[in-house]
Amino acid sequence: MNKNLNKYVIFSDSSVIDALDQIDKNQKRFLICLDSSHHVVGTITDGDIRRFILNNLDLKDERVVNICFKEFQYLNIDATFDDICNLFKSHKIDFLPIINSDNILVNIITKKQFHSLLLYDYEWDLSFDFTQINEHELDYEIYNRPWGFYKSTLLSEFVQSKIITVFPNEELSLQEHKRREEHWIIIKGKGKIILGESEIDIFPGKYIYIPKGCKHQIINNGNENIIFSEVQLGDYFGEDDIIRYRDKYGREK
Fold first, then answer.
1. Which CA distances in Å does 171 have to 87, 97, 182, 208?
2. Residues 10 and 108 in one domain
3. CA-wise closest residue to 125 among 73, 87, 75, 89
4. Residue 239 is part of a domain; what is its CATH number?
5. Rounded distance, CA 43 to CA 31, Å?
6. Same domain, 42 and 115
7. Which of 8, 115, 167, 202 is at 20 to 30 A from 85, Cα to Cα?
8. What percent of the chain has pLDDT over 90?
9. Which secondary-structure segment (H or E) carries 231?
10. Which pLDDT score, from 0 to 100, does residue 198 have?
11. What's the distance, Cα to Cα, between the start and end of the chain in Å?
């Protein structure tokens, strides 16, 4: 078992007080329960312990084995992508132990880690060390800007994609990029795009190709949000590859 998983497991003969302490430390709100032979026998969550307390039972000498949930959902190490998708469709499942044919824990994946796996285009492999994934990225992937906001949908080495919303009477800066090209599909709303020396009216379904080094700007001069999909292709996607020539909000180049 990956040593990074140690903070997410507890032996069934441990006290519930120990389980509470470990859940508080790992910040994941769950533990996988093992017997003395390291076989998985159940799971325990902070919710399980709260419900136990509400029954006015004394935690002092209570053992994990008496509280842990033994009808838990899990993945076999050879489970398919479809298997994990189907299980995580349930709002009741936030994590899944991954076990081998001997019922030994080999990995754990949370729902947020699974979504992050797809966001960053990591290779699908149930032996991957999911503890390396910063699942909190999902909580911060909506970024507000003076003109509206965007949400990242894919963040990999050579491609990034976003869904961008521009509020009425707002606009992105007139800008260009040296290390990436962009492909825009208008999803909702009407306005105009400055592309090089051209001015183009936009509407739902309109496709715009923006080569590297081409000045461009989208302007919402309508009365509803413009929503568009942006796919960036290149070798670098940092904010310092945005060269601004004109900006309504006074941001630096």
1. 42, 47, 17, 16
2. yes
3. 75
4. 2.60.120.10
5. 6
6. yes
7. 8
8. 73
9. strand 226-234
10. 97
11. 50
Q: What is the pLDDT of residue 140?
A: 63
What's the burial of 132, exposed, middle or buried (CB within 10 Å: 0-12/13-18/19+)? exposed
Does residue 73 contact residue 108 with C-beta atoms inside 8 Å?
no
For the whole model, what pTM was predicted? 0.78
Query: Tell me, what's the pLDDT at 101?
Result: 93
Sheet with 105-110: list strands edge to edge: 75-76, 95-99, 105-110
Q: At what angle do helices 46-54 and 16-26 cross, to 10 degrees?
A: 140
DSSP β-bridge partners for residue 43: 32, 69
Provide mean pLDDT across the span 114-128: 87
Q: Which residue has the tokens 């936009």?
A: 202
Residue 127's domain comprises 3-137
In a domain, 98, yes or no: yes
**Contact partners, residue 33, CB within 8 Å, separation at least 6:** 9, 10, 11, 12, 40, 41, 42, 43, 44, 64, 65, 68
DSSP state of 222: S
- Asked whether residue 79 falls in the same domain as residue 180, the answer is no
| Strand residue runs (E) in 9-74 | 9-11, 30-34, 40-45
For 152-162, what is each residue's pLDDT tens digit? 998 888 999 99
Query: Residue 57 has what pLDDT?
Result: 66
Kindly provide the b/e burial profile for residues 10-36, where b requires at least 16 CB atoms within 10 angstroms of the residue's own CB. bbbebebeebbebbeeeebebbbbbee
pLDDT at position 191 is: 97
Cβ atoms of residues 193 and 208 within 8 Å: yes
DSSP string spanning 189-220? --EEEEETTEEEEE-TT-EEEE-TT--EEEE-
Residue 116 — very low, low, confident or very high, per pLDDT cuts 50/70/90?
A: confident
